[in-house]
What we know:
Layout: E1 11-15, H1 19-26, H2 30-51, E2 55-62, H3 70-86, H4 88-94, E3 96-101, H5 109-121, E4 128-136, H6 138-150, H7 161-167, E5 178-181, E6 200-203, H8 213-225
Parallel strand pairs: 1-2, 1-5, 2-4, 3-4, 5-6
Helix pairs in contact: 1-2, 2-3, 3-5, 6-7
Amino acid sequence: MSTMNKNIPQHIVLFPDGNRRWAKKQGLPTLKGHLEGHQNFKKFINHCLKKGVKVVTVFGFSSENWGRPKKEVNYLMKLFEKYLINDLKDFQKVGIKVKIIGQKERLPKSLQKVIEKVEALTENNKKLILNLAVSYGGRWDILQAVEKIRKHNPPVKKITEELIEEYLSTAGLPEPDLIIRAGGEKRLSNFLLWQAAYAELYFSDKLWPDFTEKDLDEALAEYSLRQRRFGH
Length: 232
């Protein structure tokens, strides 16, 4: 399906689910599924660039994912580090600004250093903003925003929605227009709870490594047909 001349979402949120299940179906180690998922994500980002999407926020690792086996967690941390280092040239070449949202202090020191470097070097890129959520939870995001407001000096007299939004990890960005979740699950899983209030939801049964550019085109085509009322 073509999305030519149709309404393209400014901000897409992605749940790249199903990497482990994909690996199991293929008779491969779980870690291979994550690697395959990463390769597919690069294709996804390039296709978003071609379509004119301005912001992509991807659920990389949730605050709940720390409960996974230590070997898998360590592998994922190394994978994030490797991804950021290896793809830095591409980020610069095509104009992608990278931002990591989440509890950075919980991440390995080596990953924190890489994040600091990549964020600084891509800060002025304008083509697309890539938010990589690592050790992120939607409830945590709201709580940390409220905590910052509570510590504000001088004290804040009235807390408004607009004020909370200024302290969320996505401050300054447009609210999500479209949430795409691969892998067959149909829930928000504590991700961008505040920000997703009026986002359109699109669910695919395909496991993430099998999700293609054609699947993204179909999601964009369906989005373009929806009427967004924002409660009106």
